[in-house]
Each structure stands twice: as C-alpha cells, then as structure tokens.
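Attaching the record inline, Q. Sequence:
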Amino acid sequence: VGTSTPNAPFRPGAMLLKTAKIHRVAAICYRVRNGRIEFCLVRTGSGAWTLPKGRVPAGTSRVRAAAIEAREEAGVRGSLEPAPLARYIHQKGKGRRARLQRVEAYLLRADGFRPEKAEKGRSPRWVSREEAHRLLGKGRPAALADEVRRVLAVADMTLTAPLFVRSAAALQVA
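Structure, as predicted:
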C-alpha cells in the first residue's frame, strides 16, 4: 500500500499502520555515555538485531508491557515515557508464515542494566545510533528496515532536540 504522492517513499503497510490494532509494543532503551546516546538492541531467534518488543498481556497497559519487554529481553530497567514515541510495521516470520504487525514504541531511559537477567539468546548490546541503523538493516527487507530505522531516528531527534535548542540559544547570545 503506497501513498498518493508520486515521490513519497514507500512505507510498508501504511494503511495497516493507521487502521490495525496494536499487535506488539517495543521499548527504545537508551542511555547517555560520554555525552553520546546509545541504544540497546537484542537478538531475535533467527539472530537478527531488533528492539526489545512483545505482546501486551491482557489487563496490562501498553507502557507497562514495554517496560516488561525491556527487562525480560534486554535486562534493562528504567523510566518510560507514558506516551508512545512512534508506531511502525514489523514483519513476524518469513515466507508464507510472514505477517505484518503494528508496533507501538516507547522511549525508556535506562537506569539499570543486568544482561545476565535477559532472556537466553538475546545478547543485549548497547550501540551508537549509527551502529544501530546498520545492525537493524541486516536480514530485513529494505522497506521494513527503513520502518524501524525511522523510529530510531525519531528517538534520536527527540533525545537530542533539547541539546540542539540549548546550543542554538548559546550561539545567539554570543
């Protein structure tokens, strides 16, 4: 499903993104080290890198479910933003078993990291924005890689905007 704008980039499942119910929630886990933002990625069962994500159990809020996924899959604890940062389309499975799912992503500022508490095989890893973009592109169709990279770019812009605004204000004073 494309858009009516001729030069608009293809967004897989654009209609699904707008109309379908939320199938999964993701935690965009981040921390600041040496003045740089790092994101936590985990391995899928097939070995690809992804954001910690999962289903929303009955009776659990989406934001709480995102916190649970961060803790279970990555061993990360922290503070979650109460509103979703972005939504994206994720492909679950391959070949004939593949299906598109709508994911709602929440920012989580990490204040604790215990990788030994992560699910077996997840291998949580903190990486730079550039490395996250590279790793998230491996083993995914280009359009789906672009979806998750877009979410990470929104997170990066959201997290660095206050720094940019402060820097711009400092420049105007000088």
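Confidence is low (pLDDT under 50) at residues 1-10, 164-174. The helical segments are 14-19, 62-74, 129-137, 142-173.

More tomorrow.
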